[in-house]
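In the design runs reported in the main text, the only information available to the sequence generator was the tokenized backbone. The following block is the verbatim input for one such run; it is reproduced so that readers can re-run the procedure and compare outputs position by position.
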């Protein structure tokens, strides 16, 4: 790989790898996450894709008006994460398959990671020069298998990082071609392509804007060979007007390119902030506790400790966790042994920065600066320097910066070659690649299901309340109420002010009929977070069960005041009005629910049943036919239509809809029973007998069917 006596970056050597073989090896290595291809929608995938109407039903325009999670950017609860092009790729999946197929999303992520790795090899060749193929290959290979990428590749929402990286690398390559284009037309075409790629990267994830910093650093250091020591010397020198004019003339193209990058970046930033109404998102202390510390020194100390943890994840990615909040990283509030880690971190980083100012004009210095630029600049949006972020540490934010780390790592290996045999260095590198590949393979396996993913976090962050919350949520979804209750209580023990855990625990208690305890939890959650619409709705459900109808109505209306588009709340409000026999209001509430969510099955069904009970069968049929436009495969809608048609004596059409209901749900005994009743009334006694027997095969204890069958036999015998 590297010559033992050569202290500079290696060029062609006995250890160099041909270009075609390099591409092949990198593609193979990038498949270390391939076993996640058949994973489920896990963790944030549920909110960003499964429950996000922008992915499934709303107009394309809404994608460019809402945040990543489908909420209005103007909503005060919005995280202001604006990634419309990423959401658009999710929407294309849904449109192409006419449904949510998790495997499709995972496969595209794996393919995107492979493309990003191939492009990164080209980027490293641009930075290092085509003669440094060996270094570029080894750095890219390390990037391809780095385990810290598991969240970005195996978690579907990590698509934002993958797309952002792809277009950032494209922007760097286009910038390179713009500099080296022989004709003015091609120069400007490539520059426009570079700016467009940066804009697209930013619309995939906000980090994309940092490509401007990387391009500027590349132009300054690699192309124009201007080093930090040169900048300091220039600042100390008082240039005359003539000298300044000569300098500008000499560097005219360079200054023009930087000016274009600066103006483009400024316009993109203004556009980005205008979309979010020039308002920064608001977070809770549990999201990022260090940001809420009053003591500036302690706040900076904790930020530094978080930086060192990020660095450690790049160096030794053993501690990998889907979430690092809520006690996973405890705050440093006084004397703490972790301060030593912070000191070591800044000493290492300071040493590298010092090298930048001491060395002059060699390939090592230029590569070191570019490695640091790719490592640090894309990380700045997550650093809490410019604005507070809504997380303590997130592995996905290291996807792009890790490219800089991989380059620095290989440069470090190159330096060791002057002191250690190249064979030992190469062996160590191969062992590292093998370990990283195995770790990535195992970690991507954990990202396939929520059960395994959440439990894997207990080994890393056992004091993280959110880990226990997610284990409880997963257990509740699987029907394991006992485990869910235990884990929700554990989450609240670790974080007594965890409103989401209170809400979910209250729901479990409500389902168990413990409405008083549930009400207490909901009210406590509202005290902590008075704009929590879900809690207001759940409180309304509990109050309704306790016959406190007026309070229940107020709770539902409060939920709707905090979230105007809330079909489930409107549905429950309709149920409340039904209990109060206020039928007109119930119908209006359910109709509003179906307008907000066209496929709200329960709201459609309740409208049909209520209108039928009120004797308004024509209205009920009209509603049912409208429901079929949005729920064509819903067996219960077909069943209800059949029942109404049977009541009005339209046996022929009723039979058709009963059979449609049975074809869509052949295990529902009620469908066979009611079709049997229809045949019974229609005097098709053999068909009725067959349907009754089919119903009893499915549900042998169905007494009403047995009674109908006895009556049928009596009728048959009387006819004989």
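Verbatim output:
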């Amino acid at each position: 790989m590297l010559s033992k006596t050569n202290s500079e970056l290696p060029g062609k050597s006995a250890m160099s790898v041909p270009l075609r073989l390099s591409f092949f090896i990198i593609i193979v290595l990038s498949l270390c996450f391939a076993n996640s291809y058949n994973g489920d929608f896990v963790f944030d995938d549920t909110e960003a894709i499964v429950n996000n109407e922008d992915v499934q039903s709303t107009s394309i325009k809404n994608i460019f008006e809402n945040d990543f999670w489908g909420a209005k950017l103007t909503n005060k609860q919005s995280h202001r994460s604006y990634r419309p092009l990423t959401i658009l790729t999710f929407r294309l999946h849904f449109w192409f398959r006419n449904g949510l197929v998790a495997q499709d999303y995972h496969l595209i992520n794996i393919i995107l990671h492979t493309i990003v790795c191939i492009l990164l090899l080209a980027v490293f060749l641009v930075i290092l020069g085509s003669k440094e193929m060996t270094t570029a290959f080894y750095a890219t290979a390390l990037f391809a298998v780095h385990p810290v990428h598991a969240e970005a590749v195996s978690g579907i929402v990590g698509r934002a990082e993958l797309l952002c990286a792809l277009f950032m690398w494209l922007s760097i390559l286009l910038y390179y071609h713009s500099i080296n284009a022989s004709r003015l037309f091609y120069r400007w075409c490539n520059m426009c392509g570079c700016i467009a790629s940066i804009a697209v990267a930013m619309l995939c994830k906000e980090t994309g804007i940092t490509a401007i910093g990387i391009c500027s650093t590349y132009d300054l250091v690699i192309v124009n060979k201007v080093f930090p020591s040169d900048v300091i010397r220039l600042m100390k020198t008082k240039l005359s007007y003539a000298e300044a004019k000569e300098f500008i003339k000499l560097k005219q193209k360079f200054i023009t390119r930087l000016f274009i990058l600066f103006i483009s970046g400024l316009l993109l930033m203004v556009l980005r902030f205008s979309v979010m109404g020039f308002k920064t998102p608001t977070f809770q202390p549990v999201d990022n506790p260090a940001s809420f510390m009053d003591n500036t020194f302690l706040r900076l100390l904790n930020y530094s400790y978080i930086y060192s943890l990020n660095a450690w994840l790049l160096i030794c990615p053993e501690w990998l966790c889907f979430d690092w909040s809520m006690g996973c990283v405890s705050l440093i509030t006084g004397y703490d042994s972790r301060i030593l880690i912070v000191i070591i971190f800044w000493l290492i980083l300071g040493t590298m920065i010092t090298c930048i100012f001491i060395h002059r004009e060699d390939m090592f210095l230029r590569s070191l600066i570019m490695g640091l630029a790719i490592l640090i600049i894309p990380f700045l949006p997550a650093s809490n320097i410019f604005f507070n972020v809504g997380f303590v540490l997130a592995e996905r934010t290291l996807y792009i910066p890790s490219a800089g780390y991989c380059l620095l790592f290989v440069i470090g290996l190159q330096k060791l070659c002057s002191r250690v045999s190249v064979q030992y260095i190469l062996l160590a590198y191969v062992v590292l690649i093998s370990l990283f590949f195995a770790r990535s393979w195992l970690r991507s396996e954990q990202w396939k299901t929520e059960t395994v993913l959440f439990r894997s976090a207990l080994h890393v962050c056992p004091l993280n309340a959110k880990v226990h919350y997610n284990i409880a949520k997963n257990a509740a979804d699987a029907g394991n109420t006992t485990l869910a209750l235990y884990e929700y209580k554990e989450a609240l023990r670790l974080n007594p002010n965890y409103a989401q855990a209170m809400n979910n625990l209250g729901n479990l208690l409500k389902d168990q009929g413990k409405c008083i305890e549930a009400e207490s939890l909901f009210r406590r959650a509202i005290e902590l977070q008075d704009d929590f619409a879900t809690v207001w709705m759940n409180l309304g459900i509990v109050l309704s069960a306790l016959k406190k109808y007026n309070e229940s109505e107020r709770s539902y209306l409060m939920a709707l005041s905090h979230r105007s588009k809330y079909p489930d709340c409107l549905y429950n409000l309709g149920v409340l009005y039904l209990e109060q026999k206020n039928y007109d209001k119930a119908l209006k509430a359910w109709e509003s629910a179906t307008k907000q969510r066209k496929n709200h099955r329960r709201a459609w069904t309740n409208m049909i049943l209520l209108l039928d009970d009120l004797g308004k069968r024509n209205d009920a049929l009209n509603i049912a036919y409208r429901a079929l436009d949005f729920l064509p495969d819903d067996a219960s809608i077909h069943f209800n239509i059949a029942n109404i048609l049977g009541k009005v004596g339209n046996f022929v059409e009723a039979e058709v809809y009963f059979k449609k209901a049975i074809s869509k749900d052949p295990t529902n005994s009620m469908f066979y029973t009611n079709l049997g009743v229809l045949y019974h009334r229609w005097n098709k006694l053999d068909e009725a007998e067959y349907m009754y027997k089919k119903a009893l095969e499915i549900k042998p204890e169905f007494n009403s069917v047995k009674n109908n069958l006895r009556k049928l036999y009596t009728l048959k015998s009387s006819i004989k």
